[in-house]
């Protein structure tokens, strides 16, 4: 088991409370948190998934988008799952990416990976579903993305170290190819 995160370092605002004496994480959440935000974050951390055409998908996917990706990828389900299910950590919030510390992006990505993996294992125990988030260092924080796909659908010749899904370059090429179709 790893050491607990240093929330004072991850959330510098904690130290500013109480005339610089600081505040603990739970008290800070009670002071600034909102129920509606908590419900929204819960959906991010514990999303609904569904199976469509033997693919794991977010429950709010569209069949039209799925069919477009299936056509574009010559029906490679692993690529379709990876692209349709990927989320860039920086895109989860409207903020200037230069203000976001790498440590915060990594902490959130790893937390999402662990939570999605638990959710998928609970909801689909008979399926071997991968939740991928890179552990390697990227210069560009936008390269940190999380995705999920069936292990059996992976057909990449040289799988990246992040668990076998498409690399960012493969994802970008797929997105660009579909954009050209429109």
Care to give the gist of this entry?
By secondary structure, the chain is mainly α. The chain has helices at 7-10, 13-16, 25-32, 35-45, 63-72, 77-85, 102-123, 168-181, and strands spanning 49-52, 55-58, 87-88, 129-132, 145-150.
Structure description:
The protein has 182 residues and is mainly alpha-helical. The protein has two domains: 1-33, no CATH class; 47-181, no CATH class. Helix content is 45%, strand content 11%. It has eight helices and five strands, in the order H-H-H-H-E-E-H-H-E-H-E-E-H. The chain has helices at 7-10, 13-16, 25-32, 35-45, 63-72, 77-85, 102-123, 168-181, and strands at residues 49-52, 55-58, 87-88, 129-132, 145-150. The strands form two sheets. It has a three-stranded antiparallel β-sheet with strand order 3-5-4. A two-stranded antiparallel ribbon has the order 1-2. Helix 5 packs across helix 6 (77-85). The longest helix has 22 residues, at 102-123. The protein is elongated and about 60 Å long. Residues 157-165 and 176-182 have low confidence and may be disordered.
